[in-house]
Amino acid sequence: MTTRIALVASHGVEAQAELDRLKQRYGDIAPDQADVIVALGGDGFMLRTLHRNLALGIPVYGMKIGTIGFLLNHFDPDALPERIARAQATVLRPLSMQAHSESGSTVEALAFNEVSLLRQTKQAAHVRVSLNDVVKIEELMCDGVLVATPAGSTAYNLSAHGPILPIGSQLLAMTPISPFRPRRWRGAVLPSTTRIKFEILDPYKRPVSATADSNEVRDVVEVVIRESTAHTMTLLFDPEHNLEERILNEQFTV
Fold first, then answer.
1. Residue 211: CB partners within 8 Å, gap ≥ 6?
2. Does residue 1 have a pLDDT over 70?
3. pLDDT > 70: what percent of the chain?
4. pLDDT in tens, 203-224
5. Is the peptide bond before 207 cis (omega within 30 degrees of 0)?
6. Which of 34, 44, 152, 249 stands the most exposed, by the fewest C-beta atoms within 10 Å?
7. Is 43 labeled as catalytic in the residue annotation?
8. Per-residue pLDDT for 254 more than 70?
9. Catalytic residue among 43, 76, 219, 238
10. Could you read off the pLDDT of 36-79 as tens digits, one per residue?
């Protein structure tokens, strides 16, 4: 049975050129008519592809044409259907963010990598941290704080000196960004079932924004984060380039 492939690409010149070539070779099918989506670009474009096609529920096979391609396979235009047929599936479950702003509005968004809170001015953020409705840190003074999935633990989380989480570990990483108080706190590894709540202390003097992947909400007063139980996306990887092995190897990169 022939696999119906939908091809999508970032706006980069190289990615668009390869998109045209692949469409001539493998056809031009819309994502909602396809069995699999092939995404050409970098990790940023891969995240956008996951968000745009979440409702379709079909797997995504990425090929790297960009600066960073941790979530993608190497680019090779040959034997694409055969590569897809032998690819290994990795199921991603995103974070669900509910952000309440000082205006009284509530924004809900999903994040496959991380939800991050960042100060909006020169004033450090003051944040109360609760897990499952129990206060764990009464006042965290920092530039920000983030919660990362295993897939996102090698991105912003790693840059902020957070832990790398194996795929399938059912864990989340909570990592402070430039923490000042408590001075010794460097973050936590949490069960993926944990309900996390951040309350912004003095939000008018010390405003904070919240971002779920690329979806930003300004002037938040409270942010609730938990793993989504209603959404998943499947990524496909070449057997010799699987995500689980790459995340494991990342822990030994010096």
1. 115, 116, 117, 118, 217
2. no
3. 99
4. 999 999 999 998 999 999 999 9
5. no
6. 249
7. yes
8. no
9. 43
10. 999 999 999 999 999 999 999 899 999 999 777 788 999 999 99
Pick the CATH number of 5-92+232-250 from 1.10.10.10, 3.90.226.10, 3.40.50.10330, 3.50.50.60: 3.40.50.10330
Rounded Cα distance, 118 and 9, in Å: 30
* CA 5 – CA 232 distance, rounded (Å): 20
Q: pTM here?
A: 0.91
State how far the Cα of 33 lies from the Cα of 190, in Å rounded to an integer.
39
| Residue ranges of the chain assigned to CATH 3.40.50.10330 | 5-92+232-250
